[in-house]
């Protein structure tokens, strides 16, 4: 099956590299288009069997097409692809701002949305899938099998897209920010604590905590209970965090949901 990728920026380029490294896709079946020739040249230097093409050529040659573009760039590329698109193709978009109903009304293809995560660089993490109304059971099985080679694919309805995207795709950045700010504030609290040491303490502890949950099957609640002994300093710290952290998360999820709704209303294909 010929598979095309249009747009090889941060997420699109990651998907191509990871699919090829895992042998989920073979080089001779992969077609790639991108606005920047330099990125195409760099990709082709590492995977010499792939086909470099334009968007219309990919639409003519490929059964499965990943459209890894921003919502603003999508309309122009679809116009270029229009003459070659058909109901026999499966088109995936990574742009979160384009409602699937809007895309279905614009193209004859079966359509779905893929929200990857940077964690797919190491063949791990969640890849979110949302399906349009024309997607078949065979399409779903194909995508589950393909994405299962590089991730844990989970299908969700569009109605929960925004919080799910925040947890799965945005999650690595959110967690990295929390760890970074934790280390930085510890250093500010005591000038004798070197930033390099604070960072090492946080990152090693975070990694070991994830292993406790995955390898020892400890829940988050159990870890908190066993570490935050009543009357101890960690218990006091949990009490303090409980006063401020939930409100920060509530605000984050509310504001990003409102912004996503505004973006959906503004989409024109």
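Sequence proposed for the structure above (269 residues):
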């Amino acid at each position: 099956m010929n598979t095309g990728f249009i747009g090889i920026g941060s997420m699109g380029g990651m998907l191509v590299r990871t699919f090829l490294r895992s042998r989920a896709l073979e080089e001779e079946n992969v077609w790639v288009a991108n606005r920047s020739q330099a990125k195409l040249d760099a990709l082709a230097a590492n995977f010499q069997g792939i086909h470099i093409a334009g968007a219309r050529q990919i639409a003519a040659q490929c059964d499965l097409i990943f459209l890894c573009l921003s919502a603003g760039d999508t309309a122009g590329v679809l116009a270029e692809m229009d003459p070659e698109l058909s109901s026999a193709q499966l088109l995936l978009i990574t742009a979160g701002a384009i409602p699937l109903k809007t895309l279905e009304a614009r193209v004859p293809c079966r359509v779905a949305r893929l929200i990857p995560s940077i964690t797919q660089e190491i063949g791990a993490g969640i890849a979110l899938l949302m399906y349009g109304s024309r997607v078949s059971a065979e399409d779903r099985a194909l995508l589950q099998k393909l994405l299962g080679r590089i991730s844990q694919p989970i299908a969700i309805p569009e109605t929960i897209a925004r919080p799910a995207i925040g947890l799965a795709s945005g999650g690595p950045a959110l967690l990295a920010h929390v760890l970074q700010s934790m280390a930085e504030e510890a250093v500010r609290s005591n000038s004798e604590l070197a930033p390099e040491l604070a960072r090492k303490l946080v990152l090693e502890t975070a990694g070991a905590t994830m292993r406790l949950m995955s390898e020892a099957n400890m829940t988050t609640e159990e870890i908190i209970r066993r570490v935050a002994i009543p009357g101890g300093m960690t218990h006091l710290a949990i009490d303090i965090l409980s006063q401020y952290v939930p409100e920060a998360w509530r605000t984050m999820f509310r504001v990003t949901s409102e912004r996503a709704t505004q973006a959906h209303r503004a989409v024109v294909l």
